């Protein structure tokens, strides 16, 4: 407990010293943009990512700016990172690889379609891409989504026997312990 108290005292001293040298007060723990719902300002970027927004109506999408080589490079790197670091391993591998192969040949409309796909939730996107569920019409008409889904389904058709896969439209089943839980489960295969 004494160590915790000393740590708090040290933090308070550091914050007071910083405030004195900057001649302005220390920002509150929750900056005002969070409470008001506006775009985070640059001075608060040490608390949050500089790309974070709240309640400004654009739902957090990335602005597409292809005017200069530097802005194009930044946009491509940001989209490539978002496609490879989603936190869903299978989706990271499939989507990241597709984006890496195709992003440099995309026009502005293609990049906007990619941003729309990247804004989708991971579990839903994975189920729609693998055919476990039917995507909504808006998603199903997205050209990037259609290309990625076609690539996945072609890979499934060429590398996996139909007997080992779930019926289209049905959720996939865990193969390692299904036989123990379901008395009517198949003897071989994971479905």
From TrEMBL:
UniProtKB keywords: Chaperone
GO BP term (any one): mitochondrial electron transport, succinate to ubiquinone
| Name of protein | Succinate dehydrogenase assembly factor 2, mitochondrial
Output the superkingdom of the source species. Answer: Eukaryota
Q: Name one GO cellular component term.
A: mitochondrion
Q: What is the lineage of its organism?
A: Eukaryota, Viridiplantae, Streptophyta, Embryophyta, Tracheophyta
Q: Which Gene3D superfamilies match?
A: Flavinator of succinate dehydrogenase
Q: Which InterPro entries match?
A: SDH (IPR005631), SDH_sf (IPR036714)
């Amino acid at each position: 407990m004494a160590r915790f108290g000393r740590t708090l005292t040290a933090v308070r001293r550091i914050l007071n010293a910083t405030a004195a040298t900057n001649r302005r007060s220390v920002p509150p723990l929750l900056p005002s943009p969070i409470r008001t719902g506006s775009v985070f300002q640059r001075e608060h970027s040490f608390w949050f990512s500089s790309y974070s927004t709240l309640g400004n109506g654009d739902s957090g999408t990335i602005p597409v700016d292809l005017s200069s080589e530097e802005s194009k490079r930044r946009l491509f790197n940001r989209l490539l990172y978002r496609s490879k670091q989603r936190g869903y391993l299978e989706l990271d591998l499939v989507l990241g690889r597709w984006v890496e192969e195709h992003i440099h040949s995309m026009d502005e409309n293609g990049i906007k379609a990619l941003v729309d796909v990247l804004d989708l939730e991971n579990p839903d996107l994975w189920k729609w891409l693998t055919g476990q569920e039917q995507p909504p019409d808006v998603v199903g008409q997205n050209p990037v989504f259609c290309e990625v889904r076609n690539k996945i389904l072609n890979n499934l058709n060429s590398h996996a026997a139909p007997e080992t896969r779930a019926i289209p439209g049905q959720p996939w089943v865990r193969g390692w312990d299904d036989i123990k839980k379901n008395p009517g489960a198949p003897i071989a295969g994971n479905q």
